[in-house]
Amino acid sequence: MLALAIEARGLCKTYRGWFRSTGHEALVDLDLAIASGAAFGLIGPNGAGKTTFIKALLGVLRPTRGLVRVLGQSPDDPATRARIGYLPERLHLPASFTPLRFLEGVARLKGLSDISHEARHALTRVGLAGDASRRIGGFSKGMRQRLGLAAALLGKPLLLILDEPTDGVDPMGRVEIRTILAEERARGATLFLNSHLLSETERICDRIGILAGGRLVREGPLEALSGSDTRHRLRFAPGSDPEALRAAGLTPTPDPDVFLADTPDPLTLNTLLDRARATGALLVELRPDLRDLEQVLTDALTPPPSSRRSP
Ligand SMILES: Nc1ncnc2c1ncn2[C@@H]1O[C@H](COP(=O)(O)OP(=O)(O)OP(=O)(O)O)[C@@H](O)[C@H]1O
């Protein structure tokens, strides 16, 4: 098995500007390595460069500088492209086709052998078997999204690039899609997800990259990004004195037995713990305070106070 499913080194993309105007830097010196079998989520604000990066992975956009490798090869390689399943953000589906006819066409283009079986199987997986003979034109947004996913799944791709896969899909449908993606991963596929739905990204992906202004500002395992080195949650045995713990320097939470400790280093944390225990409180649990992905993103995009301009 390949070590890396996606590799970018020093990747830059500058969109050319109008006559004499400088171009727009959509990707700036982007370095990224995604291991085979990972579930990677790329997040970031509008205009961060996510779609530009996906276009570079698909070989439909030529980088200005730098290297991009997909499944160990150039994205221009036709055999490599055939191993990628892609769900675009904006789906263009033929309204007059039935989903079955559409999927059979995609299966044929992908060079699959048992076209009819593959199309029916994919349709069943995404929960559209009962709609096989309806026209796509009458499909809801969520049904269209499911059909797009079915098309991406055809041919057992090694890499699935999914742009907003659960957009418009109802809550039960999202659970079904997560199950399908888990099955794909278990089969050995790598997932690359671009989504503004952070709770979905959090549930599906184990590695996250945050793109802002064309730069990768954070990248790593979800636990590492959401954990904090400086904030800990402390649980004390019932019966501790909340006022004394507050006076010792701890911050109360809605749970009367749980307090937060904000400390810059382990030494200060232990000094604080000594003070808390001196009040008679018994510590029963200590763990880093985990932030959700929305908070991780907000923190990554908020400049440190020292760099903020005064109004
Ligand atoms: N064809 C183009 N010509 C000029 N500028 C472009 C072009 N495509 C994208 N851009 C610019 O490049 C930047 C990155 O765009 P991109 O579409 O990659 O962002 P994104 O992260 O996918 O945004 P969104 O979350 O809104 O979809 C934006 O400032 C955008 O205006």
UniProtKB/TrEMBL annotation:
Keywords: ATP-binding, Nucleotide-binding, Transport
Signal peptide positions on this chain: none
Annotated ABC transporter domain residues: 6-238
GO MF entry, a single one: ATP binding
Superkingdom, natural source: Bacteria
Record carries keyword GTP-binding: no
Coiled coil (UniProt feature): none
One matching Pfam family: ABC_tran
Alphabetical list of SMART domains matching this protein: AAA (SM00382)
Record-linked PROSITE patterns: ABC_TRANSPORTER_1 (PS00211), ABC_TRANSPORTER_2 (PS50893)
Similarity remark: Belongs to the ABC transporter superfamily.
Protein name per UniProt: Nitrous oxide reductase maturation protein NosF (ATPase)
Species whose genome carries this gene: Chondromyces apiculatus DSM 436
